[in-house]
Specification:
With 588 residues, this protein is of the alpha+beta class. It has 4 domains: 4-190, no CATH class; 224-336, PAS domain (Beta-Lactamase); 342-413, Helix Hairpins (Orthogonal Bundle), CATH 1.10.287; 421-585, Histidine kinase-like ATPase, C-terminal domain (Heat Shock Protein 90, 2-Layer Sandwich), CATH 3.30.565.10. The protein is 55% helix and 16% strand. It contains 17 helices and 13 strands. Strands 7, 9, 10, 11, 12 and 13 form a 6-stranded mixed beta sheet that branches. Strands 2-1-5-4-3 form a 5-stranded antiparallel beta sheet, with helices on both faces. A two-stranded antiparallel ribbon has the order 6-8. Helix 5 (84-100) runs parallel beside helix 7 (123-142) and helix 6 crosses helix 8 (150-223).
Length: 588
């Protein structure tokens, strides 16, 4: 609230109106009325001797008229009686003093002089002094009293009236100023009280909202029973422990909150190994190091339950802040992956075992097929050779599938290795085009190659990079209808510190080789593009159009690209085509 609002006048009135309707005016009117009424009684009862009845009657009439006018002006809230009424009362006192010649009538001066002295400006003082001097001089001028007393009466009376009126005027002004100041303070107090009440209401509303939000958050956390939600302070002491954590680790909330650390539920040797890998401190720092640097971290940790059993848990770690935005601790949201990870290991072991078991008989089949087809002593008929060629082609396809399965198992188990050397990607692209040329011609698809004449060398495994490029080109051939086109483009690019790949050099950017395979095929549905690098995933339109494949090619290509420190991105529009872009770092 601004001062302008606090200081705003409440029904501003003129000084004259404030006097005529204020408490000072009421007291002066009442005193004048009482004095003139008492004088009238005394005159009528001859308690005050009357020298000239006509002047006395005129004085009483003038006093009555002036007093009535004063009360009428006050009721009408008018300033008309501010000076005129007291002046008229002074005239009435002068007539009474002249008609009686008694000094008693001078007491009637108190009412009008008080009214004039309490005027807001000094004009009333001048009227009061002059009027009182005139009242004192009237008897001498009319001959009702000796003229010899006139100079002394005028001098002393004027001085007394002036001094008294000045004192009353000063006191009245101070009281009026204090009253105005008190009024202003009262208005400011009322405004501040209203402001405080408003702030109190807002605070109460905010407190209720915060309490409701806290209750809602608590209810949500308590409703989660399949994931553990653990909150700690900055030192790792547990502050939040939901029913999911109780279920997963077998410890009730009262036994852990504010009494135990999150480290009590982790394997010490796992934390030590993590600290060594990340080059950070042990204990809690090893647990939250990645989340502290990147804002969050999701990875598998081993939880130790109350019964001593170990649980493999995927834990999402994020920092926690208080209501002032200050770091207050950490949140650990865990999902029990023990059975899922065991299933994945069994699946990988099964795939690896089956692949090995299939590779041996397939190799034997292909070997005997080669002996039969190349036997010059017992040549085959054309029909027999055609049949055996079909058998050989399918055996080779099955062997490649077994190889892909073994490769994915190696990737999942972390046993995937590279044989690094300098590789000319231009030669890799030309080889991939040559390999796919027959299949593309049979499908009526055109392949266009655009590579630098001087080549583009990267550090990598030539066999694996050739496998990745073959997968991209063969996929493009399979998903492009007759009359379509595939463009194989190799060019230089740069990756900025932010991870963006651009076609021109930029400050801090690192050179990369960009290999893109663009087709005009059926495209990929927008909702399925995020799953394209998942093992065994096949798009809905591929299944609908019965395109052959098992969904391993892109998974393998992605793994090879990542192993080389590169990235594999896709852009696709259903019914228009797809472009895969592989970006590999270029050394030197």
């Amino acid at each position: 609230m601004s001062l302008a609002v606090l200081d705003r006048p409440q029904g501003a009135r003129s000084p004259w109106t404030r006097w005529s309707t204020g408490p000072e005016a009421a007291q002066a009117h009442l005193l004048g009325t009482v004095l003139f009424a008492a004088a009238a009684v005394l005159l009528l009862t001859r308690s005050i001797p009357v020298a000239d009845g006509g002047l006395v009657l005129a004085g009483l009439a003038a006093a009555s008229a002036a007093t009535g006018a004063a009360w009428a002006a006050r009721r009408a809230r008018s300033a008309a009686g501010s000076v005129a009424v007291p002046a008229a009362q002074l005239g009435a006192v002068a007539l009474l003093h002249a008609g009686t010649g008694s000094a008693t009538t001078l007491l009637l001066l108190v009412g009008p002089l008080w009214a004039l002295a309490t005027q807001p400006d000094r004009r009333g003082l001048l009227v009061g002094v002059v009027g009182s001097a005139a009242v004192a001089a009237v008897p001498a001028l009319t001959g009702s009293s000796p003229a010899g007393d006139l100079p002394g009466a005028l001098l002393l009376g004027t001085l007394v009236v002036a001094a008294g009126s000045a004192a009353v005027h000063g006191t009245s002004r101070r009281l009026a100023a204090q009253a105005r100041h008190i009024g202003q303070l009262e208005r400011e107090q009322a405004a501040l009280l209203a402001q405080v009440q408003s702030r109190a209401d807002e605070l109460d509303t905010a407190s209720r909202i915060l309490a409701a939000r806290a209750q809602t958050m608590t209810s949500v956390i308590d409703a989660v029973t399949e994931q553990s939600i653990i909150g700690t302070d900055r030192d790792g002491t547990i502050r939040v422990w939901n029913p999911g954590a109780e279920k997963m680790l077998g410890v009730p909330r009262p036994e852990v909150v504010r009494t135990r650390s999150i480290l009590d539920f982790h394997l010490p040797e796992e934390l030590t190994a993590a600290a060594a890998d990340r080059g950070c401190g042990t204990g809690l720092e090893a647990l939250v190091h990645a989340a502290r640097e990147h804002g969050s971290d999701v990875r598998d940790w081993t939880y130790v339950a109350a019964d001593g059993s170990h649980r493999t848990v995927s834990v999402a770690i994020t920092p926690r802040s208080d209501d002032r935005g200050t770091h207050a601790g950490w949140n650990f949201v865990g999902t029990d992956m023990t059975e899922a990870r065991a299933t994945e290991r069994m699946k990988d072991q099964f795939v690896s075992l089956i692949s090995h078991e299939l590779r041996t008989p397939l190799s034997s089949i292909l070997g005997y097929l080669e002996l039969v087809m190349d036997d010059e002593d017992q040549p085959l008929t054309d029909e027999q050779r055609q049949y055996l060629s079909t058998v050989e082609r399918n055996a080779q396809r099955l062997l490649r599938l077994v190889g892909d399965l073994l490769f994915t198992a190696q990737v999942e188990s972390g046993r995937f290795t590279l044989q690094p050397a300098d590789v000319d990607l231009a030669g890799v692209v030309r080889a991939a085009e040559e390999t796919a040329r027959v299949a593309a011609a049979a499908a009526g698809v055109q392949i266009v190659v655009d590579v630098p004449d001087d080549g583009l060398v990267v550090a990598g495994d030539a066999v694996r990079l050739g496998q990745a490029c073959d997968n991209l080109v063969s996929n493009a051939v399979k998903f492009t209808p007759a009359g379509g086109r595939i463009d194989l483009v190799l060019r230089r690019g740069w990756r900025t510190p932010g991870g963006e790949v651009v076609d021109h050099d930029a400050p801090g950017a690192a050179p990369v080789a960009l290999l893109s395979v663009a087709d005009t095929g059926m495209g990929i549905p927008a909702g399925e593009q995020g799953q394209m690098f998942t093992r065994f995933f096949r798009t809905s339109n591929a299944q609908r159009n019965a395109v052959p494949g098992v969904g391993l090619g892109l998974t393998i290509t992605k793994a090879i690209t990542t192993a080389h420190g590169g990235t594999l991105d896709l852009e696709s529009t259903e019914g228009v085509g797809t472009t895969f872009t592989m970006a590999l770092p270029v050394g030197g």
